[in-house]
Structures are given as C-alpha cells and as structure tokens.
Specification:
Layout lengths: L1 H13 L11 H8 L3 H13 L3 E4 L3 E4 L4 H25 L2 H19 L3 H19 L2 H13 L1 H8 L4 H17 L3 H24 L4
Antiparallel strand pairs: 1-2
Helix pairs in contact: 1-3, 2-3, 4-6, 4-7, 4-9, 4-10, 5-6, 5-9, 6-7, 9-10
C-alpha cells in the first residue's frame, strides 16, 4: 500500500496535479488515494527524502519549489551522468532499441510541427528515460531519475520557451544519430551540448531574476 501511494503521489507531483508550493493535506491525500494516514505519512517522508516534498513551518508538507540556481546545479550534475549513459547506450543499443529511439524522434518532430509543447515535453522525458535504460548503467540511471524528478517544474517551463522545441529537437536528433552509429564519443558530446543548452536557458532566467 505504501509503495502504491508513493508512486501515485510522485506521479501526480511530476505531472503537476500538485503545483510547486502547494500544500499536501494528509486528509485530502487519504481520500484521493483511498488509504490511511500512516500510508500517506510514509509516502510524504519518502518523497521528502527524494527532494520532491519539503516540510514548512506552520504549513506542513508542500511540493518543493526548485530555484533557478538549484536547477542549474542539478543540470550540471545531470550533464556528466547523461553523457555517460548516452555513451553506454551507443555501446549497447540493439537494432530494435535504435528503432524505438528513432520512433520517439519522429513523434517529437510531429509535436514540433503541431506546436504541441505538452506532448513534446512528455516525449522528451520518454527519450531520456529510454536512453538511460538502454545504457544498462543502473547506478547512473537511478541518480538521473531523481535529479530529473526534482527539477521537473523547470523542464515543463523549458518546453514553453519560444522556439525551444525546435532547438531541442535538433539536439536530440544528434544524440540518437550518434547512438544509431554506435559512436560513444559522439553520443556523449551531443548529450553534453544538449544539457549545456539547457543550462544556458536557465542562466538567462537567473539573470532575469526568475525564481
């Protein structure tokens, strides 16, 4: 039961059912997930340990806000690990896995052509997840999942930046092309370029005083 509540609450936070800064009221969560308070409290503790939820004085548990400065640090850490998993994905990808990545790229093209930022954001998440899985690097994949979950609110905002989807698409094409060619160095470099681009956008937000 506790595991189910953790997974459902985490998914709701990542899908912005609960927004950054929003209170997570135990009674309401019990009703939503049809469970007791013990399961809700255990779930909140687990998500607090993951950096997704935080406790605030006089407010209780809330969805944790991530500042631009924190998002930049997380993305810098991601850049190192994402380059590693891209390299390993280029080493290990099977023909079927390559076709799957190429299929996601085609879906991303369609989302860009139809200016569907929400769809593109979801596909972006799917592509990075599959690259992590294809890498067969369990430790890096687990750390990256946590970092992406903690910074998810900024990932959605990135997808809404004008022309960001087109730029991002080209970067993801380069990553998948390198994986398809089984070029480990090129895959790592392409992923590094992509994450540096994200850092550059976040840096401009920081310069503008966006929190």
């Amino acid at each position: 039961m506790v595991r189910s509540v953790v997974e459902e609450l985490r998914a709701d936070i990542l899908e912005t059912v609960f927004m950054p800064g929003e209170r997570l009221v135990e009674l309401s969560l019990c009703e939503r997930y049809d469970c007791g308070r013990a399961a809700v409290r255990a779930a909140l503790l687990q998500l607090e340990s993951e950096g997704i939820v935080e406790r605030q004085a006089n407010r209780g548990a809330v969805v944790r806000r991530v500042t631009v400065a924190e998002a930049i640090e997380m993305t810098e850490a991601r850049s190192v690990l994402e380059a590693l998993v891209a390299s390993r994905a280029a080493r290990h990808a099977t023909d079927d896995e390559v076709k799957e990545l190429q299929g996601i790229i085609e879906d991303m093209r369609y989302a860009v052509d139809n200016d569907d930022a929400s769809k593109y954001s979801g596909l972006n998440k799917d592509l990075h997840r599959r690259i992590r899985e294809i890498s067969r690097h369990t430790a890096a994949a687990e750390i990256l999942e946590n970092l992406r979950n903690r910074a998810v609110q900024n990932q959605y905002r990135l997808a809404m930046v004008p022309d960001r989807q087109k730029v991002s698409l080209g970067q993801h094409v380069a990553i998948v092309d390198a994986i398809t060619a089984h070029d480990e160095d090129a895959a790592a470099a392409a992923m590094g370029d992509h994450l540096q681009s994200v850092i550059d956008v976040l840096g401009r937000w920081g310069d503008a005083g966006v929190v």
